[in-house]
């Protein structure tokens, strides 16, 4: 790879237009040579019209998905792969040696971390074992004996994007949703200011920055209105969590509540770019440039960067791409 060139492949790119745009801006601003390639199941993915090249792939669950990704990496001379959805993180982590063989880096945390983050029960157990405040998950024995108080929170054990997450107010709702939601876990209900926290980590575990984003409003599990906050308590708590994680790499997105008494309670880990990351980038946390640096084999050993703008607000709205035809083939 030339010192001034890097080609990045975003997998499962879908609607992540803002993120792709931010990376293209970083290329232009810093005079970086290379291209942004997006991959998706559909030729109608909006990112297809923002990247330098768009390629079609099978579903992540199909047996030839990995083979197709490796072929794209060779054909497009990819240096760094950035996965964007939960469903492929464990798969890619499990097959990382295949990418190593063709000198392609994966912006990907360890298999252990991805397996733990993909399982809400394992996440709870990991937080509890490491002294990290988290809502209690009730076992079957406790549920049978009524050792809980309403309201409760119920969610799929392996869910994402807040799908199936339901507040439970009474016994009738508990019985219904426990049967209705596949692999349901029942959790203590917590309240307070809800934060999404973006943390950038290099391949050696060095943290570059931590950006808490107060969630004002969400839609379909993704923040639609948010504001950056230099909340020192949240930053310190998030750093403690990330330093306890096994093999964090790239953007690690945490979810937490700052409760009324001041306790920071963590509920979720997503070891990938979250949907609201454009707010952190717009605030001055240069996740695109830092990602490019990692793709070049650099590290963040020089120290952390907290120069991003406090209290920058993001108010999202729908936009559209207009095209006369779809010309991509697979």
Fold and architecture overview:
This protein has 330 residues and is α/β, with parallel strands linked by helices. It folds into 3 domains: 8-108, Rossmann fold, CATH 3.40.50.20; 136-188, Dna Ligase, domain 1, CATH 3.30.1490; 191-315, D-amino Acid Aminotransferase, Chain A, domain 1 (2-Layer Sandwich), CATH 3.30.470. Helix content is 29%, strand content 25%. The protein has a 6-stranded antiparallel beta sheet. A 5-stranded parallel beta sheet has the order 3-2-1-4-5. Strand 13 (250-258) and strand 14 (264-270) form a beta hairpin. The protein is globular.
Q: In short, what is this structure?
A:
The protein is α/β, with parallel strands linked by helices and 330 residues long. The chain has helices at 17-29, 65-75, 89-94, 96-100, 111-117, 120-129, 140-144, 171-180, 232-244, 277-282, 287-295, and strands at 8-11, 36-40, 53-56, 80-83, 105-106, 137-138, 152-156, 166-168, 184-188, 193-201, 207-219, 222-228, 250-258, 264-270, 313-315.
What key phrases describe this protein's structure?
330 residues, alpha/beta, Rossmann fold, Dna Ligase, domain 1, 3 domains, five-stranded parallel sheet, 11 helices, globular
């Amino acid at each position: 790879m030339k010192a001034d060139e890097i080609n990045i492949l975003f997998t499962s790119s879908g609607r992540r237009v803002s993120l792709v745009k931010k990376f293209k801006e970083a290329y232009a601003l810093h005079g970086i040579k290379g291209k942004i390639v997006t991959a998706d199941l559909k030729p109608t993915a909006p990112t297809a019209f923002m990247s330098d090249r768009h390629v079609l792939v099978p579903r992540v669950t199909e047996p030839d998905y990995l083979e197709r990704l490796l072929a794209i990496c060779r054909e497009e001379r990819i240096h760094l792969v950035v996965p964007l959805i939960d469903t492929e993180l464990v798969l890619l982590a499990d097959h990382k040696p295949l990418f190593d063989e063709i000198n392609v880096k994966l912006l990907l945390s360890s298999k252990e971390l991805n397996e733990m983050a993909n399982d809400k029960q394992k996440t709870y157990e990991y937080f509890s074992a490491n002294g990290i405040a988290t809502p209690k998950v009730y076992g079957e024995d406790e549920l049978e004996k009524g050792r809980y108080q309403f309201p409760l929170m119920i969610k799929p054990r392996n869910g994402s994007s807040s799908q199936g997450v339901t507040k439970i107010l009474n016994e009738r709702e508990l019985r219904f949703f426990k049967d209705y939601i596949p692999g349901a876990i029942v959790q203590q209900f917590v309240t307070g200011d809800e934060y999404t926290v973006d943390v950038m980590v290099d391949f050696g575990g060095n943290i570059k920055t931590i950006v808490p984003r107060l969630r004002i409003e969400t839609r379909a599990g993704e923040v639609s209105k948010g504001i950056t906050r230099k909340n020192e308590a949240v930053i310190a708590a998030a750093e403690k969590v990330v330093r306890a994680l096994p093999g964090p790499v790239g953007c690690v997105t945490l979810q937490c509540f700052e409760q009324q008494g001041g306790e920071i309670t963590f509920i979720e880990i997503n070891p990938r770019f979250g949907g609201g990351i454009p707010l952190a980038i717009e605030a001055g946390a240069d996740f695109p440039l830092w990602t490019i640096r990692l793709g070049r084999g650099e590290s963040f050993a020089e120290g952390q960067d907290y120069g991003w703008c406090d209290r920058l607000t993001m108010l999202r709205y729908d936009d559209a791409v207009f095209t006369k035809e779809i010309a991509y083939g697979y």
